[in-house]
Each structure stands twice: as C-alpha cells, then as structure tokens.
Amino acid sequence: MSETTAVTTTTTTTDVVTPAEASVTLTMTKALNTGLRQALLDDPKVLLMGEDIGPLGGVFRVTEGLYAEFGDKRVLDTPLAESGIIGTAIGLAMRGFRPVCEIQFDGFVFPGFDQITSQLARMRNRHEGELTMPIVIRIPYGGHIGSIEHHQESPEAYFAHTPGLRVVSPSNPHDAYWMMREAIASNDPVIFFEPKSRYWPKGEVDFTEPGAPLHASRVVRTGTDVTVIGHGAMVSVLLQAADIAATEGISLEVIDLRSLSPVDYGPILASAEKTGRVVVAQEAAGFVSLGSEIAATIAERAYYRLEAPVLRVSGFDTPFPPAAVETHFLPSPDRILEAVDRALAY
Amino acid sequence: MNDASVPAHNLPTVQLLTPEGVFAPSESAQEYLPYLDRLGEDDYRRFYRDMAVVRRFDTEAANLQRQGQLALWVPSHGQEAAQVGSAYATRAQDHIFPSYREHVVGMIRGLDPVDILRMLRGVTLGGWTPEEHGNFHLYTLVLASQTLHATGYAMGMQLDGSTATGNPDTDAAVIVYYGDGASSQGDANEALVFAASYQTPQVFFIQNNHWAISVPVERQSRSPLYLRGTGFGIPSVQVDGNDVLASFAVTAKAMDDARAGQGPALIEALTYRIGAHTTADDPTKYRSPDELASWIARDPIVRFRTYLEGRGAGSDFFAAIDEEAADYAADVRRRALEITGPDRSVIFDNVYAEPHPLIDEQKAWLDRYEASFEGGDA
C-alpha cells in the first residue's frame, strides 16, 4: 500500500487515493473503495460487514486494503449468512453504528430479504421516529459478466417496492464515489446496487463536487427526438444507442435514473414533455418493474404531451438465462433502437 | 421427550424448588447456589408479587380482548417464573430483546403494560421507546428476528467498549427471549453462529413452553433445545422454568459471565403455556386435558407461595398481594379503555428519516381528499 499522490490512469486498487488531492481517473471499484475509506476515516461509527471483505478485500476487491488499514473492529469478515449480516447490522445501528453491508452477489440477497423488508425497512416507523437505521446494503448486481446462476440478477424492484428503503444505483465512478458517501451519511437504510459490468471501466472522479444529490436523476446526454431512461449498467448501453442513433439522424436524450426509490421525476417529466416519446430500459424482468412504474407515472403526468405510449425494454420475464445466451436476454443498443423506432412510428 | 407432559428425568435440569415448593437443589444446581446469596427477603416477596400481579393483569387483558377492546391478546399464564427470575438477573445497563409474551419482563424493567396494550389495541406498531423503559426493546412479531438484533446490539457493546471492562456496575450484556417454535427459525440459528464467532456478551433465553400454537416441541427438535447451544459452542443449560429461584440463579450466572467477557450462553427454561397461544387460539383442539392438568399441578406461583409460606410469609402478605394485583388490573383496564387512536398522519410519519417526495405527495393528497368531505354540502 502506498500513499499515492500523482494519481494517473495506472492507479490500481491497492493504491490509496486521497480525495483531497485531485480529480482523478478511477475504476468504479476504486471509486467505491475510496468512498468507503473516506467514510471510515470521517466517522468512527462507520463499519463494513460482509463475506470475504477482510484480507481478501471482497470478491470484487471493493474493500481492498481497508481491513489492513482499519482493522477487524471496523471491517468485519462475517460468518456466511446474509440474514445474520443484515440482522446484526440492525442491532449495531440500534447501538449507534453505521454499518455498510456487502452482499456478495445480487442473487444472494434473498436469505436476508426478511430482515431487510420486515425489520430494517420498518424499524424507524415501528419506533415512531425514535430510532434511525443508517445502514447501507451494497449489492453488486446485473449481467454482462458471463457468470453462473444467481450471479447476474437485477432484483431492485423488490426493494424499491418496500416502503422505508431508499434504493440507488450509480452508473459511473464519479457517481459511485459520491453516492456512496451520501448513502452512508443518510439516516435511512439505502440499498446500493453496484453494476458489476461497470466495475472496471475507468472514469473521471471529481472529488470537489458531487454534481447531483443522491436522489436526483440526471440528463447525461441531451437530445430532442426520444427520451431513453435507465440506471446502472444500462446507462452506457443507452449512450451507445444514442451514438448509433445520431448517425441515423435521430437525437436521443439519455437520463440516468441514479435513484430508484424515490424516483426523481423532475428531469424525467421535463424530458418527456420535450420529446413526447419515452423508452425505459432495464436488465430486470419487465413485469411489475421499475420501468412499469415509471411508464405509468409518465403516462399519468405527461399524457397530453406524449406522441407515443411509453415503451419498455427489459430482460425477459424468465429466470436470468445461461450466460451463453445472455446477450439475447439483456437489452442491447439494438434492442433500445428497435424500441426507439417503434416510438417514432406513432 | 415424546410426551410433552413428562420431562425427561435423565437431563441435568437445574431445579432449586421442587414442584411441591420444597427447597431441594438438584445436583446440577450446585454451582448456581451462590447466586441466591444476592437475594434478600424483600426480593423473594417481590418475585411473588410480580408473578401474581402479571397473572391477574394477563386475565384482565384477555377479558379486554373478549370484550372487543383489544385486537388480540398474548397470554403469559404459566410462564411467570421463567420471566420474573430471568428479568431480575438483569442490571440497569443491560438490554432486553423480548419476543412478544414477556409482559412481566417489561414491567420489571419499568414499562407501563398499557403501552403493550396500545400495540394490541391497534393504535401503534411499537408502543414505547426502549431507552426510556429500561432498555426493554419492542416486541418482535416475526419469530426469531430479534435474536439477530440482540446479537448485533451485543457486538456493538463490544465495539464501543461498554462490556468486559471489569466494572460490574457499568459492564453491560444483552438477553434475548424466544420460544421453542422460534428456535427452528434460521435467524435463531444464525444468531447463535454470530454470537459464538464474536463471543458476544449475550444470553439466549429460550422459553420452551412446549407448544408453538398447535405444534408440540417434538416437531421442532428431537433433542433437548439447550443442546442446540452446545452444538454451536455456546455454554448451555436447561432449567426448570417454573422455578423462579432457579430461573434467577441460572440467568444471573450467565449474565454475569457475559458482562465479564466470557461470551454468550444459552438457557432453555422448561415451562408451559397454560393459556392459549393468543386469544385467537383453541388449545383444546390439540392437547389433552391430562397434559394441561399435569402442568397446572406444577404452577410456578403456587410452588413459590408454598415455599414462601415455609419461610414465614403469612396469609396477610398473600391477601395484600391479591388486593394489589386486583387494583393493578383494574387500573390497567381503566387506562386501556382510555387509549385513543392516532391522527391519520401517523400513516406517513416516520416512514423515512429524511424527506421523501412520494410520501409527501401522498400525505398531501390524503389531506385534500379528506378535506373534500369536511364542510362540504355532501
């Protein structure tokens, strides 16, 4: 471990990035790691908990180096039990700690689902406001990584459906750093979906300015013909689709949801009213999904400004398939553009 | 263990008082005898008083439910000794995580039982602030969920240095209550894993009342429940839960050890749910009159009364307690009937700590909607 000062694109996950120094180019894993490290430095009540997050640094190395720097009283390698992780985090939060829990993979969150939805989400309400639950649950999620069953899923709708939880998902390293900082600072439980396929591409992180609050959606590319909306890894797919569309003379406006609960409808409705055509994209199954909710809300609130029904591009309503066929399952730029063409045909 | 009415005699159950109220410590009770030195005559009488009062309160609450004043009642009849004995083994700085039947534990920790009735009357999902009521945490209705909260809380005590410092006046520990049914839940077992791994300052107190609604304990476990703790590497003991002195002494040792940094312990208290699971239950459908009668014969209050009579407590004492219990129950009834419902804003309050646009919009909408009926011609 070294105190890196001149941060360059050669930064590896074992170097320590000091946020005060510069705007730097980092992977999302390193941006998250830097955000977690800063939170550990700033507040002695912040704890990290999870499976393999200690000496190994997590299976994705997001916590790399933190066990060595902060020790086993701040970075807890837990027994292999997700309900145990969440349930004990609740007890620790009752005692005044701010646990950040890592669930190793999206498909492994369900053993902890009861503690998240029946306990964590309702604790403040049940205690009539006398208790806060400042817990962050990090969940690496989504496909595009060619992995096995239970390792490529997008279960965000279950949590967005649950009152009492906040749900966010960054699409780039800059947001990953700042949204992690803000999620840990929040006095509400935050489910933090990290798009696995975006862990490794590098991006600029400006440590001086978050750019947008935790629960703001953001226009990441302006356009005039069709609004396309997504979160996490889907944002880069939408941007690729916009590049292709531009070559065909079609102008897409791309919105990064960033927050899945609550949804920030301001930029979404403004864009929908401007373009009159909206496509919502997600890796998750479409039935009873974030995309369904957003489509319904746009229809309710921007009805007279729409030129076409709001269309959804989703994973199919099937289990996530074997990785060999995941490219047929996951929304691709071409699948986005197919929906864009349908929207434009109205 | 096939017959719930007959405890297996080959088990080293800790017992100080026989069912007949005779002080005759079992072989396994010897190491706990020094803990009785902490009790004076006032403590003995307090134990009796609390058991008698909560039983009378329990009857009153069940009546309130039958009269439509409570949505549900959860009787504790028969389990008073396990609860009173263990509760008096806690210290002010300890934290208690109940299930939902530990009414007298809350009362001993300073909780007004009317606060329990508020939840069962449907005016709140909680009822009290634990820190202001003896660190007696809220009831948890999803079975065994609280075992993990208790373990996490105990981990927090370790991390913030409020246990195992060597100062018995400040060192803290946690006790968590659950039952024979809840012992089958995954959370109860994960809590034992975490507690053993981190050596938390914590006591797991299982009230084996022999019935999980209609299912006998044999369906939960083919071996005595205290052996579950042993299997996780946690010192475990089975105690006669209808013996208030044994319940106190065993819990006092376990809590002392936990506060002193010796890690978690598990106690299985053998007792019996004399009443129904809740007022929605009908135990005559699944258990025999003979079994019930055999446990009524081991009533914890009668047993302790006999013992106290042997120590010189006279009929005046018991008559005074009966009168106090009747007054207590009447006061609870009067105040329970005065419980009023909250404003509808409670629907939206405290869902989140920080502003949330969806909640704010829906609250404003409901206000407008309700206002549309107020002062209008309709």
Describe this structure in words.
Chain A is of the alpha/beta class and 346 residues long. Chain A has 2 domains: 24-205, 3-Layer(aba) Sandwich (Rossmann fold); 218-345, Rossmann fold (3-Layer(aba) Sandwich). Chain A contains 12 helices and 14 strands. Chain A has helices spanning 28-42, 66-70, 82-94, 113-119, 123-126, 156-160, 173-185, 234-247, 265-275, 290-301, 326-329, 333-345; strands at 24-27, 46-50, 75-77, 98-102, 136-141, 166-168, 190-195, 202-205, 218-221, 226-230, 252-256, 259-261, 278-285, 311-315. In chain A, helix 3 runs parallel beside helix 4 and helix 8 packs across helix 12. The model of chain A is unreliable at 1-11 (pLDDT under 50). Chain B is of the alpha/beta class and 378 residues long. Chain B has 2 domains: 27-337, 3-Layer(aba) Sandwich (Rossmann fold); 343-378. Chain B contains 13 helices and 7 strands. Chain B has a 5-stranded parallel β-sheet with strand order 1-2-3-7-6, with helices on both faces. Chain B has a two-stranded antiparallel ribbon with strand order 4-5. In chain B, helix 1 (41-66) crosses helix 2 (80-87). The longest helix of chain B has 26 residues, at 41-66.
Key structural traits:
heterodimer, A: 346 residues, Rossmann fold, 7-stranded mixed beta sheet, 12 helices, B: 378 residues, alpha/beta, 42% helix
**Oligomerization:** heterodimer
Q: Secondary-structure element sequence of chain B?
A: HHEHHHEHEEEHHEHEHHHH
The CATH architecture of the largest domain in chain A: 3-Layer(aba) Sandwich
The CATH topology label of the largest domain in chain A is Rossmann fold
N-to-C terminal Cα separation of chain A, in Å?
58 Å
CATH domain class of the largest domain in chain B: Alpha Beta
- CATH architecture group name of the largest domain in chain B: 3-Layer(aba) Sandwich
- Uncertain regions spanning at least 5 consecutive residues of chain A: 1-11
The residue fraction in helices of chain B comes out at 40-55%
Derived structural class of chain B: alpha/beta
Greatest interface and its participating residue counts: A-B, 42 and 39 residues
| Number of DSSP-assigned strands of chain B | 7
Gross morphology of chain A: globular
Q: Give, in order, the helices and strands of chain A.
A: EHEHEHEHHEHEHEEEEHEEHEHEHH
- Largest beta sheet of chain A: what is the strand line-up? 3-2-4-5-7-6-12
